[in-house]
Amino acid sequence: MELLCMPTAKLPVTKWHGGHSYSIRCAGIAEPAGVPAPMGQKTQYKDGLFEKLFMSLFARKMEKFVTSEVSKKNNALWDMDYERFVDVSKRVMIGRSRKQQQEVVREVLLSMLPPGAPAQFRKLFPPTRWAAEFNAALTVPFFHWLVGPSEVIEVEVNGVKQRSGVQIKKCRYLENSGCVGMCVNMCKLPTQDFFTNEFGLPLTMNPNFEDMSCEMVYGQVPPPFEEDAVSKQPCYADICSVANTSSPVCPKLQ
């Protein structure tokens, strides 16, 4: 019998109980080495029920903002795969400005929470070092389905070293979308804004477009978009399906 577990557990593990063998399989990277594939190669994942449920929940919320009927399918929660999840994100992006894309993500995130959740979060997690480190630790297992493997790292916030950083090894969302605009407008900026302004816990995300890794720093106030290095990032000319190679900056960031 095969059981699913959180992706941070070690595998494989086989236990005997009552004469039966139970194989505990953790959903996650399906690469032989157990780490993301090198740049230029697509990492293979084997998603379990936990991951598919989250993909389905987010995709169904986002589909309400999709103008095209093509992607609106009433699949069972466990039938969702990551490619379809990313496809819904792309359709949300179509015809919307940078600000409008970010607002959609904000509405989706709010819709996933019970009423009054941001206010309760502010009470439970005031912007302290402990809150920043605690949320960094939670990010690793609970966002594995979205961004892939990550680890807590030590960072410096306002001159103080603390373990409130998260290093995403190779972002699954960026790798599958291949789109700088989607990374910035539908992940980095709205996530930063949501934690900083809705939850009251500053968060800065620093994607590395050279290797698709990303550093998240809880407790650090994000810079204005115009002063952020990502505002000048060009398209992925070779992998983005809507890339504009004649523009020095990704058009979706303008």
UniProtKB/TrEMBL annotation:
Pfam families according to UniProt: D27-like_C
TM region(s), chain numbering: none
Domain of life, per lineage: Eukaryota
Domain called Beta-carotene isomerase D27-like C-terminal: residue spans: 145-227
GO molecular function, one term: iron ion binding
PANTHER family for the chain: BETA-CAROTENE ISOMERASE D27 (PTHR33591), OS08G0114100 PROTEIN (PTHR33591:SF4)
Name this polypeptide is given: Beta-carotene isomerase D27-like C-terminal domain-containing protein
Protein source organism: Musa balbisiana
